Amino acid sequence: MRLHETCSPRGRRLSRGVLLLALGGVLACTAAARAQWESSKVRPFLKTNPKFLAAFRAVVAPASASTVRVQCDGKDFALGAVVGTDGWVLTAQAADLKGKVVCRLKDGREFDARLVGIHEAHDLAMLKIDAHDLTPVDWRSSKEDPVGSWVASAGPGTEPVAVGVISVGARKLPVSKAPVAPDFSNSGFLGIGLEAGDYGVKINDIVRGSAAAKAGLRVNDLIVAIAGKLIDEPELLRKMLQNYKPGDVVALRIKRGDEELDLKAQLGKRPPVRAEMQNNMGSKLSKRRTGFPDVLQHDSVVEPPNCGGPVVDLDGKVIGLNVSRAGRTESYAVPAEVIRPLLADLMSGRLAPPARAEVTSK
Predict the structure, then answer these.
(1) pTM of the prediction?
(2) How far from 306 is each of 37, 132, 155, 159, 311, CA to CA, in Å?
(3) Residue 89 to residue 80: CA distance in whole angstroms
(4) What ranges in 28-177 are assigned the alpha helix state H?
(5) Span 188-269: which CATH code?
(6) What are the residue ranges spanned by the domains of the chain?
(7) Are 160 and 59 in contact (CB under 8 A)?
(8) Please, what sign has the CA dihedral across residues 288, 290, 291, 296?
(9) Which tens digit of pLDDT belongs to each residue from 34-84?
(10) What is residue 52's DSSP assignment?
(11) Distance in angstroms (rounded) separating the CA atoms of residues 217 and 266
């Protein structure tokens, strides 16, 4: 009996028992495996370890058969889940789905894809390919699996792309007026601390080696203008600098005592925020990490190119679709019970993509 063939409570207990035995074998590290770990520095107890992932092959097997690789202009972009026998594929990261889109099936066949529908709130995209007799994923409400339950994220291969546990059950999130936080990580960096001053903005700190230090700015200088525009508050200066990129040269007019000077600073690269550095320690984060109305949160390390694929419980049932690597210990999935009512509208064209989200398959 395979793990994914049982749905009854007794069968589910049996599935969990078999899986726990398999995990026990994985974690019982032999002397040879220990020596290999010491040489490779790959911890056998990590959820990303290949031997650990291999224990979940039977669990993800049904969903893997219904998982495709989505490429944009020849590069891996996301995963997708087959949701209709005649070529319907649901994927994530809809806002960035551009260029020539191709879906590669588990058997290696590739098909040009046409974007049919977008659900902007959940960043989902419905694709249509010219394929038939496909196997759709087998959905189950995420509410049937409590917090702490093991989950695995299926890919088109035999092993899961990630394994973890449900950390927060399906829940509704407050809808923000600005669902995607602005990203200023690529804006130019002057390297100064600011406070309000008389007739300008006062510099109260200068980062060592920064553009400000190289330009000759000093603590207690007053910045009165940037690029010829008068500056009277710190927030205005910050907003203006966000329009510049690293390497850009900005003209500054400053007041130093009774003297006014014109200086030029070549902006540097903005250093990462400490919190962002900590979040990225686990893996690279998704571009969109907020604003989803409904999420199922789990702690699997789902890389952004592997978002869009199904997340399954120990019975192999699909309880959600991964949409975001949101933090060092958080991945978000849209719950199955939220996705299923959306499928008809996504397929029908009632949620057709706006003109700005044009996708070509030429």
Answers:
(1) 0.64
(2) 26, 24, 8, 13, 11
(3) 6
(4) 31-40, 50-54, 57-64
(5) 2.30.42.10
(6) 56-176+273-362, 188-269
(7) yes
(8) positive
(9) 444 444 444 444 677 888 889 999 999 999 999 999 999 999 999 999 999
(10) H
(11) 12
